[in-house]
């Protein structure tokens, strides 16, 4: 991923913080530490124009912006705390495509709390009870079923069952749905409470 390098090339005056170390990336952005705020990180994100008729890609920014505004105002319990977000601009690049010679793209950012990674045992727990990656199954277990599963998992794995249960309850009650639940999008705050990240895969329920 190369979103920060594009920002430095196309809109260097709009970068809102002093960027430090790169922590990782995904299909739509890069995450960096912030020089003057070691307790926060910034994610630079990119959305490309789609040449099919889907509402994904660059058209998806309106949904994402609404979600980010809601996060700022309400700070829903299962999600990492959001501090700031912004639009860095719309640009274009040359492409080899039969219908168009250029492809538009949007760059935006958001600043959130810096979190800690899950342990290997915690990853296994969340893969079992929440992950959408398991054979394409969307899991929506009842509180009773999750409690039963955690009792079984607790015989071989080290994790805080009470905090896992609380986190699952927060997810169930939240008006914001995460569309990509898996251990890579779950982290922990300094108190060990689990939090969802990746606001680009979130839907605000009406």
Please describe the topology of this protein.
Layout: H1 3-10, E1 19-25, E2 29-34, E3 37-48, H2 61-74, E4 82-94, E5 102-113, H3 120-129, H4 143-153, H5 161-173, E6 176-178, E7 186-188, E8 194-196, E9 202-204
Antiparallel strand pairs: 1-2, 2-3, 3-5, 4-5, 6-9, 7-8
Write a concise synopsis of the structure shown.
This protein is an alpha+beta fold. The chain has five helices and nine strands, in the order H-E-E-E-H-E-E-H-H-H-E-E-E-E.
Could you characterize what this model shows?
The strands form three sheets. This protein has a five-stranded antiparallel β-sheet, sandwiched between helices. It contains five helices and nine strands; from the N terminus they run H-E-E-E-H-E-E-H-H-H-E-E-E-E. It folds into two domains: 3-113, Phosphorylase Kinase, domain 1; 120-204, no CATH class. The longest helix has 14 residues, at 61-74. With 206 residues, the protein is of the alpha+beta class. Helices cover 27% and strands 30% of the residues. Helix 4 runs antiparallel to helix 5 (161-173). The model has no long low-confidence stretch (mean pLDDT 89). Strand 1 and strand 2 form a beta hairpin. It has helices spanning 3-10, 61-74, 120-129, 143-153, 161-173, and strands spanning 19-25, 29-34, 37-48, 82-94, 102-113, 176-178, 186-188, 194-196, 202-204.
């Amino acid at each position: 991923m190369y979103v920060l390098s594009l920002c430095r090339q196309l809109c260097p005056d709009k970068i809102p913080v002093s960027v430090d170390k790169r922590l990782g990336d995904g299909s739509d952005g890069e995450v960096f530490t912030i020089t003057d705020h070691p307790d926060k990180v910034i994610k630079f994100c990119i959305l490309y124009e789609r040449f099919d008729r889907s509402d994904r890609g660059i058209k998806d920014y309106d949904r994402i912006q609404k979600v980010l505004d809601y996060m700022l105002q309400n700070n829903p319990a299962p999600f990492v705390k959001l501090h700031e977000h912004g639009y860095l601009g719309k640009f274009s690049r040359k492409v080899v495509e039969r219908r168009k010679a250029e492809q538009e793209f949007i760059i935006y950012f958001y600043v959130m709390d810096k979190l800690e990674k899950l342990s290997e045992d915690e990853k296994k727990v969340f893969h079992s009870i929440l992950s959408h990656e398991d054979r394409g199954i969307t899991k929506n277990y009842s509180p009773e079923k999750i409690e039963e599963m955690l009792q079984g998992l607790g015989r071989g794995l080290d994790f805080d069952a009470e905090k896992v249960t609380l986190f699952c309850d927060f997810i169930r009650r939240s008006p914001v749905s995460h569309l990509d639940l898996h251990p890579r999008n779950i982290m922990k705050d300094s108190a060990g409470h689990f939090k969802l990240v990746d606001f680009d895969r979130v839907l605000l329920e009406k």
